[in-house]
């Protein structure tokens, strides 16, 4: 079976790319079953995996007609952000009204977004879906371009394969692309809570000298927690009974939202950072977590992945008629356009993690002074905001 391109991985990043490339003949393979399209969370259940997405990426998902397919009652606009240091009164705040924008971000559940993407994908003109499929062998040759063999023996050919298959990418590994990984020794524990006090559509975060706690607003009186903790503490926190967990989070958040009640059992995700040594080679491109993984302390991973998709789709659709999709010179334009953002975001997340994890008291004063200082500098705040709104 021959296609213009193969997209390996139908997570939010891969599925968005397929939608953005309507008009091309695409093979989309994903290890999960297509039943996922029907797995949108219902009224009662709230997904503990949520994303804070930038207005720029939400605009992109609107252009793809994906955002409109998510029930509005499952979406939460963020009007303010409060980031607290690990000393009392050290904080920085952002406000949509003062920044002159309708909202600073949107919070969306993973399953709601994934289901909206998948609902129409399998019937998209030109898209042939291979759900519950995995690649087992990947070959490159000058005539065929790429040949991908699936575990059931089917063989797919194309000029380009895009690896959107997440942090443990088969495509990246089969192509021999190395990653420089760094373990944080931290695990993110996520859970949803009902809160006694109104969250006011404000995303709140506390740096705690290593651990980082975030409470993101969900519709109504609900918040979603992402707590990045040293591995041993994460194991302990995950093992707490619901009452004890709620009390511990109340304490860590200085009671900002009053009494909390656990709504979803905690889940955990091991944290690490890496960037692939290259994003492209002839007939191949990497996007999303297959290309880079960052610490989730500022919720930038999927935002970076969607920006990859925006740039790659624009590059492929805007190619000169003489260039094939797998042409290395074309793919290098994508790699060059993404290099700075990926490096900067990864390094910033890592730097913040290192700065707020440093135990020495001198560092503690400096980082907390830095927060207060930045809070009083409108120019710096605007720069930070401009980056976050893209
Ligand atoms: C706790 C936590 C909180 C986060 N919060 C945020 C946030 O607020 N905002 C944000 O922007 N980012 C956030 N992130 C980062 C975000 O989750 C990831 O960056 C994003 O999910 C990556 O999407 P992806 O589509 O690239 O990869 P994935 O979501 O991993 O999708 C990969 C897809 O490929 C498929 N697949 C894998 N292997 C194969 C194979 N061999 N063959 C076929 N298919 C395969 C999988 O089934 C899956 O569908 C957070 C991360 C964590 C851990």
Q: How would you sum up this structure, described in words?
A:
By secondary structure, this protein is α+β, with helices and mostly antiparallel strands. The protein is built from 11 helices and 20 strands. Helix 1 (12-20) runs parallel beside helix 4. It is globular. The protein starts with a strand and ends with a helix. The model has no long low-confidence stretch (mean pLDDT 88). Residues 8-14, 29-32, 51-52, 134-135, 164-166, 170, 188, 190, 226, 269, 288-289, 296, 299-303, 305 line the site of flavin-adenine dinucleotide.
Describe the protein's topology.
Blueprint (H helix, E strand, L loop, with lengths): L1 E7 L3 H9 L5 E4 L20 E4 L1 H9 L12 E3 L1 E5 L6 E5 H4 L5 E5 H12 L5 E4 L4 E7 L3 E6 L4 E9 L6 H5 L4 E17 L6 E6 L4 E7 L3 E9 H8 L3 H11 L7 E3 L4 E10 L3 E2 L2 E3 L5 E2 L7 H17 L10 H30 L3 H15 L2 H12 L1
Parallel strand pairs: 1-2, 1-11, 2-8, 5-13, 11-19
Antiparallel strand pairs: 3-7, 4-7, 5-6, 9-10, 10-11, 12-15, 12-16, 12-17, 13-14, 14-15, 17-20, 18-19
Helix pairs in contact: 1-4, 1-8, 8-9
The structure holds flavin-adenine dinucleotide.
Flavin-adenine dinucleotide (FAD) binds next to α1, β3, β12 and α8.
- The number of helical segments is 11
Q: What is the C-alpha radius of gyration, as a whole number of Å?
A: 21 Å
Q: How would you sum up the major sheet?
A: 9 strands, mixed
Please name the CATH architecture of the largest domain. 2-Layer Sandwich
Number of domains: 2
Ligands: flavin-adenine dinucleotide
Using the coordinates above, name the CATH class of the largest domain. Answer: Alpha Beta
Corresponding CATH superfamily of the largest domain: D-Amino Acid Oxidase, subunit A, domain 2
Uncertain runs: none
* Helix content range: 25-40%
The name of the CATH topology of the largest domain is: D-Amino Acid Oxidase, Chain A, domain 2
Strand content: 25-35%
The count of DSSP E runs of length 2 or more, i.e. the number of strands, is 20
Q: What is the CA–CA distance across the termini?
A: 38 Å
Mean pLDDT: 88
User: What coarse outline follows from CA principal-axis ratios?
Assistant: globular
């Amino acid at each position: 079976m021959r296609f213009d391109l193969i997209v390996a991985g139908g997570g939010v990043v891969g599925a968005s790319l397929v939608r953005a490339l309507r008009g091309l003949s695409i093979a989309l393979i994903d290890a999960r079953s297509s039943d996922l399209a029907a797995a949108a969370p219902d009224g009662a259940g709230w997904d503990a995996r949520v994303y804070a997405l930038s207005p720029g990426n939400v605009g992109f998902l609107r252009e793809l007609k994906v955002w409109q397919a998510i029930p509005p009652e499952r979406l939460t606009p963020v009007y303010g952000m409060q980031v607290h240091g690990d000393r009392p009164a050290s904080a920085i705040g952002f406000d949509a009204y003062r920044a002159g924008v309708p909202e600073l971000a949107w919070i969306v559940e993973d399953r709601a977004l994934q289901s909206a993407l998948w609902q129409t994908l399998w019937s998209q003109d030109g898209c042939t879906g291979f759900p519950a499929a995995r690649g087992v062998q990947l070959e490159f040759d000058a005539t065929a371009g790429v040949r991908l063999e699936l575990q059931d023996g089917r063989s797919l050919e194309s000029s380009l394969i895009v690896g959107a298959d997440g942090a443990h990418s088969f495509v990246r590994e089969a192509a021999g692309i190395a990653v420089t990984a760094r373990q944080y020794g931290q695990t993110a524990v996520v859970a949803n809570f009902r809160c006694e006090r109104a969250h006011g559509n404000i995303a709140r975060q506390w740096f705690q000298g290593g651990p980082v706690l975030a409470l993101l607003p969900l519709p109504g009186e609900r918040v979603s927690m992402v707590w990045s903790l040293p591995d041993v503490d994460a194991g302990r926190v995950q093992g707490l009974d619901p009452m004890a967990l709620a009390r511990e989070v109340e304490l860590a958040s200085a009671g900002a939202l009053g009494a909390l009640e656990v709504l979803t059992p905690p889940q955990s995700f091991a944290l690490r950072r890496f960037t692939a040594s290259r994003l492209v080679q002839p007939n191949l491109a990497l996007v999303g977590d297959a290309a880079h993984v960052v610490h989730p302390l500022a919720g930038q991973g999927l935002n970076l992945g969607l920006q990859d998709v925006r740039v790659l789709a624009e590059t492929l659709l805007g190619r000169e008629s003489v260039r094939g999709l797998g042409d290395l010179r074309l793919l290098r334009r994508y790699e060059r356009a993404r290099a700075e953002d990926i490096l900067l975001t990864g390094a910033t997340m890592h730097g913040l993690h290192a700065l707020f994890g440093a135990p020495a008291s001198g560092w503690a004063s400096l980082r907390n002074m830095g927060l207060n200082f930045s809070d009083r500098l409108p120019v710096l705040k605007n720069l930070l905001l401009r980056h976050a709104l893209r």
